[in-house]
Write a structure and sequence with these properties.
Blueprint: E1 2-14, H1 17-44, H2 49-63, H3 68-90, E2 105-107, E3 112-115, E4 120-125, E5 128-135, E6 147-156, E7 161-173, E8 181-186, E9 190-195, E10 202-206, H4 208-227, H5 230-260, E11 267-271, H6 273-282, H7 288-291, H8 295-309, E12 312-316, E13 341-343, E14 350-352, H9 353-369, H10 380-383
Parallel strand pairs: 8-11, 11-12
Antiparallel strand pairs: 1-5, 1-7, 2-6, 3-4, 4-5, 6-7, 8-9, 9-10, 13-14
Helix pairs in contact: 1-2, 1-3, 2-3, 4-5, 5-8
The chain binds zinc ion.
Length: about 400
């Protein structure tokens, strides 16, 4: 059985000055087409596509310069809005005529083409087909061989930018599961620590470089804030976007490397986000930057990349992961000598504290399987597929 995977790639369009005007006007006319069709449909209380087409198509063509594909697209989107609004009304729920101030233009294969490798897109506009430059981040290059389906063009008034969300899909064969489990501990001193229960994989994703970059951004921000001039404010906005892109790139890189450690059919065990936040709050030496680190995004990216490779991602409750001995299971607050070192009161076992936590995460999962898989404490041969005992830090040298 094949599985269909779907993704949305959010890309920034880079129009010339002239193209920007064309796009803004196209969006404006599309808005008219959408709102007008909604109004006609709402008055007649219909959401039938053919009927709506007959009632609105020629008027919209008359009053706008939209190409027919976009008139039809606006009608299709309006039809969907009308359907849910009228259904709500019929159920006696609160409902009104759908209207939008800034609707996104929906493109399909008849109204747009995209070349991710050439960073180029062609869109239907009021001035015919126009070619635009797009910025495709490196981590989107993995989608080059995916099938492109529809897209949405949206203008962000605040950022003054056009975003093109491109939907892509790919059929991947379902992979037979195998007994290969890694636990991932997120947060605290290291952004991620990955391990197998037997210690064959011990991989640290150090936050050092990220911290240095974040602190540089922080310093710059302070300087700009104290200036307070309009140009400083503009810089601030750009700066925060650049930092966001940097952080996303770091998450992509970490997710990619974690997934590379696991063979197809294996299992990645993550900890429920709530647990991570709690631990981070409890830790003292964690700076502000880590509080705002986007762990939800990192987990999502791990899931995305794992799916493509046929790796399962599961979540466990991470209770006591930092207080529990990953060797003997003894739980005590005193098990920590300090933030970085774990020393078990019970058996004397010593380990890097984050590594201990990450082993507990995967062991918690195996324990939750109980007798089902038949190995709470699996034999080493089971884990032997990937063998990278390279304990050390992995820098996150993305750009910046
Ligand atoms: Zn112990």
């Amino acid at each position: 059985m094949d599985m269909k995977l779907q993704r949305t790639l959010k890309l920034v369009l880079k129009p010339t000055k002239e193209q920007k005007q064309i796009l803004l006007e196209t969006l404006e006319q599309y808005k008219f087409a959408y709102n007008y069709t909604c109004k006609i449909g709402w008055e007649a209380q219909i959401w039938n596509g053919v009927q709506l087409h007959n009632l609105t198509y020629y008027t919209v063509r008359d009053k706008t310069s939209l190409p027919s594909q976009l008139v039809i697209s606006a009608r299709v989107v309006a039809t969907e809005s009308l359907k849910s609004a009228i259904k709500r009304k019929k159920k006696g729920l609160k409902s009104k005529c759908p209207q939008s101030n800034n609707p996104a233009i929906r493109y399909d294969k008849r109204s747009y083409s995209v070349w991710l490798d050439r960073e180029e897109v062609s869109l239907a506009t009021i001035k015919g087909r126009q070619r635009f430059r797009i910025k495709v981040p490196d981590y989107f290059k993995q989608y080059l061989d995916w099938k492109v389906t529809s897209a949405n063009l949206k203008y962000d008034k605040k950022l003054k930018k056009f975003f093109l969300n491109i939907n892509v899909e790919k059929e991947v064969p379902e992979v037979e599961t195998r007994d290969f489990f890694v636990g991932v501990d997120l947060g605290l001193r290291k952004l991620a620590v990955v391990s197998t229960p037997d210690g064959r994989i011990n991989r640290f994703f150090d936050g050092g470089h990220v911290r240095a970059v974040s602190e540089r951004y922080q310093a710059l921000r302070k300087r700009l804030q104290s200036k307070g001039t309009p140009s400083a404010k503009r810089h601030l906005k750009k700066l925060s976007q650049r930092e966001k892109r940097f952080r996303t790139a770091v998450n992509h890189k970490i997710a990619k490397e974690i997934v590379e450690l696991v063979p197809a059919g294996g299992v990645i065990v993550l900890e429920k986000l709530k647990g991570i936040r709690k631990r981070i709050k409890a830790g003292k030496q964690n700076r502000r930057w880590i509080h705002s680190w986007n762990f939800a995004q990192l987990q999502r990216l791990i899931e995305y990349k794992a799916q493509v490779k046929g790796i399962r991602v599961v979540y466990v409750d991470a209770r006591y992961t930092s207080q529990k001995c990953s060797k003997c299971g003894h739980v005590s607050r005193k098990n920590r000598r300090d933030q970085a070192h774990f020393v078990c009161e019970g058996c004397g076992f010593q380990l890097n504290a984050d590594l201990n936590a990450s082993r507990n995460i995967v062991k918690n999962y195996l324990a939750s399987l109980g007798g089902k898989s038949g190995h709470g404490e699996a034999s080493p041969s089971v884990w032997g597929v990937v063998n990278r005992p390279d304990v050390g830090s992995v820098g996150c040298a993305v750009h910046g």
